[in-house]
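== Sequence entry ==
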Amino acid sequence: MRKIQYVVVVALLALYACGSKEAKPVQQRTESLQAKSLLQGVWIDEETEDVMFRAEGDSIFYPDSMSQPAHFMIVGDTLQLGTNTYRIEKQSEHVFWFVNQSGDIVKLVKNVNPEIDSSFVHDETPNVMTYTEVVKRDSVVMYNGQRYHWYIAINPTRYKVPVKSYNADGIEVVNIYYDNIMHISVFQGAEKLFSSDIRKQMYEGKIPADFLGQAVLSNMEFGKVDAQGFHFDATVCRPDGASCYRVENIVSLDGHLNTKLIEH
């Protein structure tokens, strides 16, 4: 009986030992500091000779001043750039080849022209491509014998809107833009019927969330006044392209706001 118990205990210990070996965490591959060192500098396209980026420290900067710098690492044969990874095909002191998002091999060579180095300027605060100062619009309209005064103010903000895109070599870049707040007021004589700020978040449910997150409230214009009220057309656009949504903001004659999507 004791012999049987001994055999069982030995078997259980063996299973536990095997399980312990399987449970050991796999060591993560470490960053190649030598490969990162080789990438430092300005790189140009081998064929077109266009400047692609400058690697400086842990960041990659793009010649487009609107593009946000991206953190990078090189682990094994992989370039980790922001949230994306690219397989490295070849790397030396003056050559860097990698596979882009489309599966094409991008062939870069390190720049040796000091004039290009000096002309490459990066700025961690990208230029603003929206309004830089408050824009005011107003007018007087008549409806059913009553005199009304509408007022629009376009207020630029420092609310950042990151917009992801891919450059010509299939590398993801993040451009930073700034959103706007629109203010609408409607008066009947000296009586205020409506006064409120309009933000793009008010259009959630009308504009797809993925689009709205990378769009700015770019404009607001007065359309008309009728029995429904005062019609103000808002434009919500991706700042890096021509894709926009138009939303109609209707201020009723008794001062209530309703919105509806009118165009994409």
Helices lie at 2-23, 33-39, 114-119, 209-213. The domain at 33-119 is CATH 2.40.128 (Lipocalin).
